Amino acid sequence: MTFDFVERAKGTEPFRNETQFASTAAELAGTAEEQVAGIRDRFADLDSVAHSLLSRPARPGLLWESFNAGVAAGLLGNATAARERLAVVLAEDLFSDWVREVQQTARDLFDVADDVAAV
Q1: Distance from the Cα of residue 98 to its chain's centroid
Q2: Of 57, 66, 51, nearest in space to 106 by CA
Q3: Residues 73-105: pLDDT tens digits?
């Protein structure tokens, strides 16, 4: 199982020329390399993953963040947190078929959040 997690290492930098771009890319690669150990610690196990995902506020428009947090909470038996995050997914605008499919999955998970045998 995988969970998506997005976090910026650095703000955006406008392209000015190839030399500046190469320098910025090298700096960003170095920053990413330094952050790998911290990321591995933050996501060492399901408890850590759930804690990290649930520590972020639910934000409408970021469907996968709420979905992943809801699934992680459900897997740990935290039905209240699972339902809260899955409810955010269910409230998203239906702008495409894939959102409808994700919402159906979220609805199914919402309905079994209290069922420990379902996990």
Answers
A1: 17
A2: 66
A3: 999 999 999 999 999 999 999 889 999 999 999
Q: Can you give the chain as a three-state secondary structure string?
A: CCCCCCCCCCCCCCCCCHHHHHHHHHHHHHHHHHHHHHHHHHCCCHHHHHHHHHHCCCCCCCHHHHHHHHHHHHHCCCHHHHHHHHHHHHCCCCCCHHHHHHHHHHHHHHHCCCCHHHC
CA distance 97 to 101: 6
In whole angstroms, how far apart are CA 103 and each of 1, 59, 63, 85? 19, 16, 9, 12
* pTM for the whole structure: 0.75
For residue 119, what pLDDT band results from cuts at 50, 70 and 90? low
**Contact yes or no for 68/89 (Cβ under 8 A):** no
